[in-house]
Specification:
Elements lengths: L2 H7 L3 H4 L6 H25 L6 E5 L5 H10 L4 E6 L2 H9 L7 E6 L12 E7 L8 H10 L1 E12 L6 H13 L6 H5 L6 H10 L3 E14 L2 H11 L2 H5 L4 H18 L4 E2 L2 E14 L1
Length: 285
């Protein structure tokens, strides 16, 4: 481990909590450029969007997929972006408008999409399906709003064992915070079994299902930054909120030290660089 990285990891627990902003704001500021923008571009390339298409982005978050997609379909196209979280949508709408297709933002559930049958040419869903409480219903809703011959493009995280940073953090959370503290992180990988994923898609009525697995390198300045961003800008923030400052101090430093040790082979002077695995799905209606 390089000297600068060690210094970063030895900051006080109080310093690790100096991330200012709400969880959606921090998500946009840190996780979008580090993680989701990489996979958004990959997903949209796979979807092969065409000029003038109408598309829906389900679980759009702060809109990284919707914005790239709007550029691809151009001014003749249209993008609808839906999320259940009003904080995420507020951040999405606060960002500068893209000079391409219009993006309409909707607050709503993937389980009851507020759109008529056969409305969209393409439905996209980036790293969201695993979190839905009723995945079969969500997929049937996606199929319902697609035109005949329409396309579904989505992605989910692969096995947690093939995502070393998440694996290390999940183990450290259970050990230092308490049993099941890692549930939010482990849920990210709930659809890592590609056969289970394929069955979900086909049972919802989709055809010609193609699943491909890819890995990309993700970069953070240090293990300390990775841990504090995960704790502040993901669903883990709700876990953190249950503890007072004194309690957090007892385990935050232990989390960083354990994650840094587990990821030692991925640490260089330039920071932390680790592989992340994702399954991408394409299917037809």
């Amino acid at each position: 481990m390089g000297e600068d990285t060690q210094g970063e990891d030895r900051r006080s627990a109080q310093e690790w909590w100096q991330l200012e902003g709400s969880a959606p704001e921090l998500y946009q500021r840190y996780l979008v450029p580090a993680v989701t923008a990489l996979w958004a571009a990959d997903l949209i390339d796979r979807a092969a969007l065409q000029t003038g298409e109408l598309l829906l982005d389900v679980a759009c978050g702060t809109g990284v997929v919707a914005r790239i997609a709007a550029d691809r379909v151009g001014t003749a196209g249209r993008v609808a972006a839906l999320d259940l979280n009003p904080g995420m949508l507020a951040v999405a709408q606060s960002l500068p408008a893209v000079p391409s297709a219009r993006i309409d933002w909707y607050e709503g559930s993937a389980l009851d999409l507020p759109f008529s049958n056969a409305t969209f040419d393409v439905v996209l869903c980036q790293l969201g399906l695993q979190f839905f409480p009723d995945r079969p219903t969500a997929l049937r809703e996606m199929r319902r709003v697609l035109v005949l011959g329409g396309r579904l493009a989505l992605n989910v995280f692969g096995s947690i064992e093939h995502n070393p940073a998440t694996d290390a953090l999940a183990d450290a959370l259970d050990r230092h915070v308490g049993p099941h503290a890692s549930l939010a992180k482990r849920t990210e990988h709930a659809l890592s079994d590609t056969e289970q994923l394929r069955r979900l898609i086909t049972d919802a009525g989709f055809q010609d299902v193609v699943i491909e697995t890819a890995s990309k390198l993700v970069r953070f300045p240090s293990p300390a930054d990775y841990v504090r961003i995960q704790l502040a800008a993901t669903p883990l923030a709700s876990v953190v909120a249950r503890y007072d400052a004194a309690s957090r101090e007892r385990w935050v430093e232990a989390l960083v030290e354990e994650v840094a040790a587990a990821l030692a082979s991925y640490i260089r002077n330039a920071g932390l660089t680790f592989p992340q695995e994702v399954h991408s799905v394409l299917a037809n209606c």
